[in-house]
Specification:
The chain contains 8 helices and 28 strands. It has helices spanning 12-20, 33-36, 164-172, 211-221, 236-246, 266-271, 309-328, 380-384; strands spanning 29-32, 40-41, 45-46, 56-57, 61-64, 78-86, 101-104, 116-119, 129-132, 142-143, 154-156, 177-181, 185-191, 195-196, 207-208, 225-232, 252-256, 275-281, 284-285, 289-295, 300-305, 337-342, 346-347, 353-363, 366-371, 388-392, 398-399, 404-409. The chain is elongated and about 95 Å long. The protein is an alpha/beta fold. A 6-stranded mixed β-sheet has the order 16-13-17-21-20-18, with helices on both faces. A 5-stranded mixed β-sheet has the order 8-5-7-6-9, with no helix packed on it. It has a 5-stranded mixed barrel with strand order 22-25-24-26-28. Bound molecules: adenosine monophosphate and magnesium ion.
């Protein structure tokens, strides 16, 4: 077979556009807050009660009438009888009458009659009576009802990506469940009769299946729920049966291997029978052969990625991860990029966009990027030493040392 010419290849952006034109956000579901963590809100959240719900003390100290201690100084403290104690969580049985005070803890409701809190530090800490060395303004150290969130406030809007701070707020306003876009469930399969599970004995011709672990972990890092189904031999019937079994729990399916032009490239052969999947040659390096389409009764998005681990991973980053983020409803879809100074040259075939494995670091306030490993798509060791991909445009064949280049950051983020 002759080598494909660049002009017979499909552009990376065109392929991504085709994918994103048929992949949409998942329908919302009600989740408890910790299940909703990492998902995108599908409703506006309006507070139904004030936050804080009642006036309460910001300090451990004494609830007083400010006018009773207006003259208090260190040289001439005011002494007040203490009529009781109020702990956080208790109901106030006291009204503070003129000339009296109540010992109060942080978060406890301010008793009627009192209009200021004197911090413990301004007093002798007395139990039966207290000596107060400093005057307090009315309102001092009182957290008023609704000062954080008045009732009827939209505290979070639909479309918000829920991190720890946001689910904390949902709990604070008393929500138990919220409507969010669920995490896509991703089924990951490796095809190849040469594959064995990691840990199994390697007989001649066999290799450990790296891709199903690699791609499942990448799907988890993209925010999905991912199922590593594992190895399927190069037998179209087994692949179809496995896919039909797995589709029930899949919002998206990823396979690796079997998409090029070899005699046993079963994915190409099998997928035509259960869906509409196109196998195309995309102008990128690594990752030229790509399968994408919709399969099964629910038209589940299917990605048939190439088998070399580096190709599979880069294809995941460039095509599958944006699709998963679209399903989650999160923006931006794409990995962040920075402009970084190249520490060694990178070459790229003409007419293809190269994604070169690299290590990026900040040196003296600027991004500096070192290519790692060679260009071989089987070089998984160098993939493991990378935290970035240098993007070489289609029209460029060489980037010289010192060039400032677009670099995709492969930041790790769980959930
Ligand atoms: P294929 O795309 O099936 O022709 O596979 C291309 C190359 O990637 C071959 O050398 C395969 O042995 C290798 N390969 C395929 N699948 C995996 C996998 N799951 N883990 C590691 N290497 C693989
Ligand atoms: Mg294969």
């Amino acid at each position: 077979m002759s080598a494909p010419t660049a002009d017979s290849l499909k552009g990376v952006d065109a392929h991504l556009t085709d994918i994103l034109s048929v992949v949409g956000p998942l329908s919302p579901l009600d989740f408890t807050l910790l299940d909703a963590h990492g998902c995108v809100l599908a409703e506006d959240i309006v507070s139904t009660h004030p936050l804080p719900p009642f006036d309460n003390s910001a300090m451990d100290g004494y609830a007083v009438r400010a006018s009773d201690i207006a003259a208090a100084t260190a040289a001439s403290p005011v002494v007040l009888p203490v009529v009781g104690d109020i702990a956080a969580g208790s109901v106030t049985p006291y009204t503070v009458q003129p000339g009296l005070c109540v010992r109060i803890m942080t978060g406890a409701p301010v008793p009627p009659g009192a209009d200021a809190i004197v911090p413990l530090e301004w007093t002798d800490g007395g139990i039966a009576q207290v000596s107060i060395r400093q005057a307090a303004q009315p309102g001092a150290h009182i957290r008023t009802a609704g000062e954080d969130v008045p009732p009827g406030t939209t505290v979070l809007s639909a479309g918000t990506h829920l991190g720890a701070q946001q689910v904390g707020l949902l709990a604070a306003v008393g929500r138990e469940r919220v409507s969010v876009r669920p995490r896509p469930r991703v089924v990951v399969l490796s095809t190849g009769s040469e594959l064995v599970d990691p840990g199994q004995a390697l007989t001649t011709g066999k290799i450990p299946d790296a891709n199903s672990t690699l791609l499942t972990a990448a799907a988890l890092e993209a925010g999905a729920i991912a199922f590593r189904v594992g190895i399927v031999p190069d037998d179209p019937r087994v692949l179809i049966d496995t896919l039909e079994d797995q589709l029930i729990r899949a919002d998206l399916v990823v396979t690796s291997g079997g998409v090029s032009v070899g005699a046993y490239d079963v994915v190409k052969e099998a997928l035509g029978r259960i869906g509409e999947v196109k196998f195309e040659r995309v102008a990128m390096q690594p990752g030229m052969p790509q399968g994408f389409g919709l399969i099964g009764p629910d038209k589940t998005p299917f990605f048939g990625l190439p088998g070399n681990p580096v190709s599979a991973y880069v294809s995941f980053e460039v095509f599958v991860r944006p699709a998963l983020r679209r399903m989650l409803g999160v923006e931006p879809l794409h990995r962040p990029t920075v402009r970084a100074r190249l520490n060694a040259p990178v070459s790229s075939p003409s007419g293809k966009r190269t994604y070169a494995r690299a290590w990026v670091a900040v040196e003296k306030g600027e991004y500096v990027v070192n290519p790692v490993g060679g260009s071989g798509s089987h070089l998984i060791a160098s993939l493991a030493g990378s935290n970035a991909l240098v993007v070489v445009p289609e029209s460029t064949t060489t980037l010289e040392t010192g060039a400032v280049v677009t670099t995709m950051l492969l930041e790790r983020r769980q959930r």
